[in-house]
Amino acid sequence: MVRNLNHDTFLVIRYVKRRLTVMIDIDGKHEWRDCIDVPGVRLPRGYYFGTSSVTGDLSDNHDIISLKLYQLTVERTPEEERRDREVYLPVVDNLRLPGMEAPLEPMSGLALFLIVFFSLVAIVFAIVIGVIVYNKWQEQSRKHFY
């Protein structure tokens, strides 16, 4: 949705008090629209901020014209300061990723029995059909009319 536009597109990434907010301006109207807002993001200190315009197999030209980085001063309680120092890996509280549903419940005894029963019936049916086809093939291969 940001390709081949006649105006610049802008992106704001804000991380304040364990809340990550991303807003975009792709319409050229200088009005920010919410993109994502994730509470409970815990990022460790001492990492670097980097950007890339790698697009994989696409042959588009993406130019990052400028970056403006600000360090916000936010009042924190001593408890918040202690919790922020203890973060070693990036973590998001209560995040449900796509494809990470709850584990499936184990099958009941009846369902397991039916699956095994019908599997065995199908195997027996395939063996019977195979024997019939093999016998027909042997009969036809024995008959030679010279």
UniProtKB/TrEMBL annotation:
Subcellular location(s) per record: Membrane
Any single Gene Ontology cellular-component annotation: endoplasmic reticulum-Golgi intermediate compartment
Entry keyword annotation includes Glycosyltransferase: no
The L-type lectin-like domain, residue ranges: 1-72
This protein's name: LMA2L protein
Transmembrane segments: 110-134
PANTHER family with a match to the protein in the record: VESICULAR MANNOSE-BINDING LECTIN, VIP36-LIKE PROTEIN
Pfam (any one): Lectin_leg-like
Record's bilayer topology term: Single-pass type I membrane protein
Primary location: membrane
Transmembrane helix as UniProt keyword: yes
UniProt xrefs under InterPro entries: ConA-like_dom_sf, Intracellular_Lectin-GPT, Lectin_leg
GO biological process: endoplasmic reticulum to Golgi vesicle-mediated transport
Keywords: Membrane, Signal, Transmembrane, Transmembrane helix
Highest taxon of source: Eukaryota
GO molecular function, one term: D-mannose binding
Organism expressing this protein natively: Alectura lathami
